Amino acid sequence: MTPAIDLRGVTKRFLTPSGGVYTALRDLNLTVQAGEFCAVVGPTGCGKSTTLALISGLEPASEGEVEVLGKPVRGIAEQIGYVFQTDAVFPWKTVLDNVAAGPRYHGRPTSEARSTAREWISRVGLSGFEDRYPYQLSGGMRKRVALAQSLINEPRILLMDEPFSALDVQTRSLMENELLSLWANTRASVVFVTHDLEEAIALADRVFVISAGPGTVKANYPVPLTRPRNVTEIRMQPQFSQIYGEIWNDLKDEVLVSYERQKRSGAA
Amino acid sequence: MSARNAAARLDVTAPISAPGTPAPITDLAAQRIRARRRRELNIYGLRVLVAVIVLGSWELTTRIGIVDQFFFGQPSGIAKQLWIWITEETALGPLWEQVLVTMEETVLGFIVGTVLGVVIGVLLGRNRLLADVFSIYIKAANAIPRVVLGALFAISLGLDIRSKVATAAILVFFVVFFNAFQGVREVERNLIANARILGADDRRLTTEVIVPSALSWIIASLHISFGLALVGAVVGELFGATQGVGELIYSAEHNFNANGVFAGMLLLAAMALLAEAFITALENRLVRWRPPAVGSEIQI
């Protein structure tokens, strides 16, 4: 079976404003099976977000191959959903029109798009807020809008870039549980980027550890915890702490390297 | 801070923070509302006072002859002049006709300049090559004092409405253009990425993301540019016209009628204020999605 996402020997370099070359990713190999929920963890600035940009086709790789659903990525890939770290819902559209945007862009008539949007709005628990503008919603509610906006296109690949990092702890575990139940119905392949190892283990089937920049996959760990999961309760299982200990051992070194580097560049 | 100040401060907060006897919340709210209303009344009072002092001293100094009313006019004379214009007619015909003519030139120039500014601004904002090629010419054109183009338009387009509309439009164009251009450039990358992932093509990207996002920039420029359109229309009239408020001012100037010049200025100010109210209403309608501005209560 072809994997949903396959990155082979991928390198990404950027030109810095001062004319230098900055290598964000180096020789990265990452494979996600169809229907698999993967989490990517790593220290700040290790190229986690860049990885998502390459998979989505927002940016081309400098070297190596990026394949999604068996096809090499050229431009924005079809059947992909992307939940951004910062707010990316359109502030000038109501909740209803934000969620209806995807189907409309795919050429569906507005009335049809809106009725599908209403279904998704109720699925993410925002019924009654259809006519609100994003500024009138809380951070958690805006994330729900973003989720519905992505999922309405029924993507087979869902990319999430630290989607819940700006939320408070309670809202966050609520949203994590809801994400899992929404995902259970779609069975899309997910790449979930986070710097929070606990979140990664609680959600994912597999955790990739990325090394301090230039990022490359240091190791990947299967998470054999049973589903359906409750992210709050699962953290208390002994198996959870065991997996956590194992991965943290690996991640810790990278975090320290990254921290030392930041300190040095701060001092320089 | 002096000790007395500190004491006064304490005194004010004392009834609120006194332990055991907190003031009822409704009382507090009513107190606050009363205080705010008092402040508003005070401000209106002070505003009237400023007008009375300025106009009063103007009237007084011209009456006793310290200031020559032949050159500087006189408030009562201005009022009288306006009254005559309204009840009888101006040297050019009925007053409302002059106002209407200038209004028409202004509004047409405003619309033409705004449409051109938005279209070209968005076009150049979206297209790197066009922007790089044309930016130098636009900067150069922006550097010349554009009102002098009114003279050119008077020659090339004649003395009818077209030369005034063109003068107004050219003044409006640059302000709107720069704002539209900047607005397009400042669109959040995230929103563009999101729209593209959701399946928006280039046309949708422009109409659904770029233009709405740039709209707050564009609308902000409309406040200034209506005033500029008025300037353009009046300057156009000064270069040669048979009707309009600018022409009215011009003919008053020729008759050494300072009061007439001031009266014309008052008319122009009234027109600008009217348009400003209209644009604010338009803004509130178009950018309903924006959170209420911080400190919007301190509007002047």
Structural account:
The complex is a heterodimer of chains A (268) and B (300). Chain A is of the alpha/beta class and 268 residues long. Chain A has helices at 48-56, 95-105, 110-123, 139-151, 169-186, 197-203, 231-234, 238-267, and strands at residues 5-15, 21-32, 37-41, 63-68, 71-72, 80-83, 157-161, 189-194, 206-210, 217-222. In chain A, the strands form two sheets. In chain A, strands 6-7-8-3-9-10 form a six-stranded mixed sheet, with helices on both faces. In chain A, strand 9 and strand 10 form a beta hairpin. By secondary structure, chain B is mostly helical.
Task: Provide a concise account of the structure shown.
By secondary structure, chain A is an alpha/beta fold. Chain A is 40% helix and 23% strand. Chain A is globular and about 55 Å long.
Characteristics of this structure?
heterodimer; A: 268 residues; alpha/beta; Rossmann fold; four-stranded antiparallel beta sheet; 10 strands; 40% helix; globular; B: 300 residues; mainly alpha; MetI-like fold; 12 helices
CATH class category label of the domain at 5-79 and 196-267 in chain A: Alpha Beta
The helix/strand series of chain A, from N terminus to C terminus, equals EEEHEEEHHHEHEHEEHH
CA-based gyration radius of chain B: 26 Å
Residue stretches of chain A low in confidence (pLDDT < 50, at least 5 long) are none
Structural class computed from helices and strand pairing of chain B: mainly alpha
Mean pLDDT of chain B: 86
Low-pLDDT stretches of chain B? 1-18, 295-300
Distance between the termini of chain B: 32 Å
**Percentage of residues in DSSP E strands of chain B:** under 5%
**What is the CATH third-level topology name of the largest domain in chain B?**
MetI-like fold
Total beta strand runs of chain B: 0
The number of domains of chain B is 2
Q: What fraction strand of chain A?
A: 15-25%
Q: Tell me which CATH architecture of the domain at 5-79 and 196-267 in chain A applies here.
A: 3-Layer(aba) Sandwich
- Which overall shape of chain B is indicated by the principal axes computed on the Cα atoms? flat
Biggest β-sheet: strands ordered side by side in the sheet of chain A: 6-7-8-3-9-10
Mean pLDDT of chain A, rounded to whole units? 91
The run of helices and strands of chain B is: HHHHHHHHHHHH
The CATH topology of the domain at 5-79 and 196-267 in chain A comes to Rossmann fold
The biggest beta sheet of chain A is recorded as: 6 strands, mixed
